[in-house]
Amino acid sequence: MKSLNLLCVFSLVGASTLSFAADSVPAPTKEWNQWGGSSVRNNVPVGTDIPTEWNVGEFDFKTGEWDSETAENVKWVARLGSQTYGNCVIADGKAFVGTNNSGGWLERYPSNVDLGCLLCFDIEDGKFLWQHSSEKLKTGRVHDWPLQGICTAPLVEGKKLWFVTSRGEVRCLDTEGFHDGENDGPITDEQHTAENEADVVWVFDMMRELGVSQHNMCSCSLTAVGDILLVVTGNGVDESHLNLPSPNAPSFIAIDKNSGKLLWSDDSPGDAILHGQWSSPAYAEIEMPDGTMQPQAIFAGGDGWLYGFDPKGDGEGGSKLLWKFDANPKESFYVVNSSATRNHLIATPVVYKNRVYIGVGEDPEHGEGVGHLWCIDPTGSGDVSPELAFNSEDPDEPIAPKRLQAVVPEEGDFARPNPNSKVIWHYSELDDNGDGEIDPFLETMHRTIGSVAIKDDVLYVADFSGIFHCLDAMATGEPKVHWSYDMYAAAWGSPLIVDDKVYIGDEDGDIAIFNHSADPNEAMVEDGGEMMPAHGEINMGNSVYSTPVVADNVLYISNRTHLFAIEKKE
């Protein structure tokens, strides 16, 4: 149990800042070096005096330039592209964020050239340092959607950075770029080795090496287990949304982070992939019933199944499956619109106190829809889904998974409870106020592409219908909903819990700020007969598709066009 407790502490303060003051108060998190801050993916840094009031100031709509005189509690602002979905990472004295090329930072790539860009800024003043440029694939939107840029967050360790490009490449970069006067990689062209260019160490092309055919783009924020990088390849359907060009290509892989060599691969979703695969993996050491610790790489598949693997693989280039979990009801069905009741997994799994949490979702272009939020015990083996599918011709033998609908009653299919199930609780809808009716918004979990955040056993998650849910993370059997709040705008990102506050952004550009509490009367305040976030909502001037993060007591928020470093001033 000691190893698990240490892992939970790492998720709170970051591996590089595990130190405590004399009064046992955790030191502020100095770096947020990957999506979720650590491999358990729980967005809960340590910080103090984090602002709950700020004003982003005024901008020149033609040039994008910022007028600092009108701003409040804003340390600096950096111009990004026109569409920013990548989550910010803070490490090595730098801020890294993915966007498109509408900012036109490099002379050789004017703003009218469509690229996927990973930008690097100095965290002291927001000064632009370098850019990695991913030119668009010639195959177009089926593999590399126009103007979407880089939607992933990198992993940073020391002076090295790893990330997945929209082109389906895993790349290793030097965090210094060429500012250190050294070329760490194979590129020698002077145009590509200028001071404001990225210094590429190695490249692993998943399309070329593995036959992957990603749908729209790759969008995996990878993580690492020692020297092992864990990656979702993005393999998916073609433009018809019906055919899978590469059903046998891997969906999950492990790469040596020093050399870029493939260690193992897995194609479990196979021809059951519904659409694309845009989730990111998690890693944790799980305490098993016998007291041993089992390392687990946890992948969310485009077939709607969650998978647990041994991160070392089988030793022969293949995967070693520990367990798998179907996150959809067996009779749910898939079509490419909001009427579908079967979904895949876009959110990142989060590990907390030996439990795994994830919600189902869908491409936002396909609209809102029914959702499910799961709490799973990862100590099982084999199929740990809540149900198993059978057919009347052989009612004792489970049938294989089907792509669009696991159980089709008209074909003699039926479902039974799975005696091997590892569901702890499941939230889809709940009559929380006891009036005998289900509120289709506040008492319902909808599709989500965001991940949960948990602190003090209190869980928060936003769904794509704009409902912000607060639940008991450690419930057993039945879910326990503490409260819900309607943001009246779709939420793409995930919550941030810091300094006993909870921050969540939405498509309208508002950041809602709650007190961290299971009690709705503490988390919110009554205003004009409605319950509102305790610290109100602050508009960022443009849509917020990303997740707020905190490092060294500075709050970082990206809207579509700018990155803001927010810090309380004297």
Features:
570 residues, mainly beta, Methylamine Dehydrogenase, Chain H, 5-stranded mixed beta sheet, 4-stranded antiparallel beta sheet, disordered N terminus
Question: What's the CATH class, please?
Answer: Mainly Beta
Question: Helix count, per DSSP?
Answer: 3
- Work out the number of β strands: 39
Strand order of the largest sheet: 16-17-18-19-23
| CATH architectural group | 7 Propeller
Task: Tell me the Rg in angstroms.
Answer: 23 Å
Total number of distinct structural domains? 1
Mean pLDDT: 93
In terms of structural class, how would the helical and strand content be classed?
mainly beta
Signal peptide: 1-21
Organism: Botrimarina mediterranea
Keywords: Signal
Protein name: Outer membrane biogenesis protein BamB
